[in-house]
């Protein structure tokens, strides 16, 4: 995957024009531009700013992070216009393994994030609010499976095995009175 650098005068998908550049950083005599640079947007008649989206290398031009093709213009338009590079010889290039390490697929789309639930519980005395240390317990999972253990010195149960969905559980403590 390749993303070209943007420069002053480049346009957005609705005709917005980049009005700021980085002094002394140029391509064919035109200043390269940066994240946060102003974009005059004729579609919504406002001044927006370039905001990042998608993969990028950590780079710094005169204290500013370069803007790339595909970044967005944060103006009053909805959806946000996409920035388009007018040149293709200055760019960032990414291999699939680099993209994956940044959280993107080979096309530069964000990888889906998996949600896991692996909770742990602290058992507290209902009268004093103090942790119930070294207490036997059983946890009944939504599946009906039981998990047994003994709380640690701070009253915590073991961490439950990961699940991909949230679930309700019931916790049972040994029958002694705790004070």
TrEMBL record:
Extract the InterPro entries matched here. Answer: PAAR_motif
For this protein, the record's CDD domains field holds: PAAR_CT_2 (cd14744)
The molecule here is called PAAR domain-containing protein
Give the species this sequence originates from: Paraburkholderia dinghuensis
The uppermost taxa in this organism's lineage are:
Bacteria, Pseudomonadati, Pseudomonadota, Betaproteobacteria, Burkholderiales
């Amino acid at each position: 995957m390749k993303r070209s650098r943007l420069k002053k005068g480049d346009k957005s998908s609705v005709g917005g024009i980049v009005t700021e550049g980085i002094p002394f950083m140029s391509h064919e005599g035109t200043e390269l531009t940066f994240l946060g640079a102003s974009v005059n947007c004729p579609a919504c008649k406002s001044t927006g700013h370039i905001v990042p989206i998608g993969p990028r290398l950590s780079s710094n031009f005169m204290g500013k992070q370069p803007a790339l093709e595909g970044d967005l213009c944060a103006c009053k338009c909805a959806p946000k216009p996409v920035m388009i590079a007018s040149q293709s010889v200055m760019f960032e290039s990414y291999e699939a393994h680099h993209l994956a390490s940044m959280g993107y697929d080979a096309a530069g789309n964000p990888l889906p994030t998996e949600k896991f639930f692996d909770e742990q519980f602290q058992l507290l005395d209902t009268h004093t609010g103090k942790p119930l240390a070294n207490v036997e317990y059983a946890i009944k999972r939504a599946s009906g499976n039981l998990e047994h253990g003994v709380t640690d010195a701070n009253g915590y149960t073991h961490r439950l095995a990961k699940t991909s969905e949230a679930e309700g559980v019931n916790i049972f403590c040994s029958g002694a009175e705790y004070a």
